[in-house]
Amino acid sequence: MARTLTLDEWALEEFSAPVPSRATLMRYAKNGMIYPLPVKAGRCWRVEASARFIGMAEKPEISKDIDPRLMRILEDGTST
Fold it and tell me: How many Å apart are CA 25 and CA 8, to the nearest integer?
């Protein structure tokens, strides 16, 4: 594995100000929004120095039997 950085060190290089909070960075790591995927070493998330933030890789699945009001919000947010 290439040289690794902590999430905080990586975020300083990846993002311009303001840098996301530690909680947000950990959510990115847990949800696979960083590639290559971070590795948890003990209590600390480690990220390859060349890793990039990719965001959501695919759309979440939405069940067709949910409340129509919730479906409307999830699809486009319009009220009518």
Answer: 8
